[in-house]
Specification:
Elements (H helix, E strand, L loop, with lengths): L2 H20 L18 E6 L5 H17 L2 E6 L4 H13 L4 E4 L8 H9 L4 E4 L13 E4 L2 H15 L7 E7 L5 H14 L5 E8 L4 H14 L5 E4 L2 H13 L9 E6 L2 H8 L5 E4 L5 H12 L7 E3 L4 E3 H7 L6
Parallel strand pairs: 1-2, 1-3, 3-4, 4-5, 5-11, 6-7, 6-8, 8-9, 9-10
Antiparallel strand pairs: 10-12
Helix pairs in contact: 2-10, 3-4, 5-6, 7-8, 9-11
Bound molecules: beta-D-galactofuranose.
């Protein structure tokens, strides 16, 4: 090999090694992707452990942090905003590199986020959004488009009743009051069904995203509503709780009462394959790897998108059995 060819080979090998380090990829010499050798510490405040979706989301975040060589300080807020605020203040005291969290509700964050900003600790939102008008309070928001999820739920229903004129009585199990998914899934759904007056939401109440509460509220709906055609549940855990109530009332879920759900967890796919849920609008909890990449970029001072939406689909009953073995959560 000529001297020139050998030199070119060495040079390209050098470039390959340096770019691997600089990109913060798995070959990188440092977790923060800057090649500085500093191991990133991230404070993560999780909503709680209220649903199968949340369990999968927590695992995804924890596994991704380990894989990325990031030290994760994890706090479970048990669905209480005051616990999340306390956790964020503790992360500020501990001088973590980045704070990431899924806000249990949309409002009431400006004060504590200003404290993080004053401490020069960047904040990344994941899963749920805040309604802060001050865009300087967080660097980016990675998560689903809940309005779109609600629209997809509404679109399925409109198609089901195309050409029919009888009234369609809907009961709605809302997610946690004040949370972005509850507000937006309701907004997207009602925006679609309002086009046809036969669709009527005859009862709507929060089931707080849990099976137990979903069952309890569905029992109340069954007692108070003379005719229920459809249940729209803002997540699978409430739908699965409602299925128990419907069956205990001697009715067939998926047949006597059609069920529209959101999330796409394995247990819901099983219920769909048994004909008990009619459609499931997917909401992807596996955000961990994207979140860690985003955190590294934010810490390294790189430009990042303000809003990163996750990819997700819609699954109907006829697709459930085939899809179930491949479901990752
Ligand atoms: C949605 C997430 C919601 C899920 C529920 O991104 O915030 O919270 O739909 C979970 O299952 O409890």
């Amino acid at each position: 090999m000529s001297k020139r060819a050998a030199a070119a080979l060495v040079a390209s090998a050098m470039v390959a090694v340096l770019s691997a380090c600089g990109s913060g990829g798995s070959g990188g010499s440092s977790a923060d992707g800057t090649g500085s050798g500093h191991k990133l510490t991230v404070g993560f405040s999780q909503v709680g452990a209220e649903s199968g979706w949340r369990t999968a989301n927590t695992k995804s975040v924890q596994d991704a942090a380990k894989k990325a060589g990031i030290t994760l300080k994890f706090s479970d807020a048990q669905q209480k905003q005051e616990n999340q605020i306390k956790a964020i203040r503790s992360f500020i005291q501990q001088k973590v590199d980045v704070i990431a969290f899924s806000p249990v509700v949309e409002s009431g964050w400006d004060t504590v986020l200003k404290e993080a900003k004053d401490a020069k600790i960047p904040v990344v939102l994941t899963d749920r959004a805040v309604d802060s008008k001050d865009e300087s309070l967080y660097a980016s928001f990675l998560g689903s488009d809940f309005v779109e999820e609600g629209k997809r739920a509404g679109d399925w229903l409109v198609k089901q009743y195309q050409g029919k004129t009888d009234a369609v009585n809907i009961v709605e199990l809302q997610g946690t009051t004040g949370s972005a998914p509850a507000n937006d899934r309701k907004a997207g759904f009602t925006d679609v069904i309002k086009a046809d007056s036969k669709f009527k939401i005859v009862a709507s109440q929060t089931g707080d995203f849990t099976r137990a509460k979903g069952k309890e509220v569905m029992q109340a709906f069954l007692k108070s509503q003379p005719k229920i055609d459809v249940l729209y549940a803002h997540n699978d855990d409430m739908a699965l709780g409602a299925i128990q109530a419907i069956e205990e009332a001697g009715k067939k879920p998926g047949t006597d009462i059609k069920i529209i759900s959101v999330d796409g967890v394995k247990d819901a796919f099983t219920a769909m394959s048994q004909g008990k849920i009619n459609v499931d609008v997917e909401c992807n909890p596996l955000l961990g790897d994207q979140l860690m990449d985003l955190i590294k970029k934010v810490k390294a001072g790189e430009q990042v998108p303000r809003r990163i939406k996750t990819e997700e689909g819609v699954f109907t009953q006829d697709q459930a059995a085939a899809a179930l073995p491949n479901r990752q959560y």
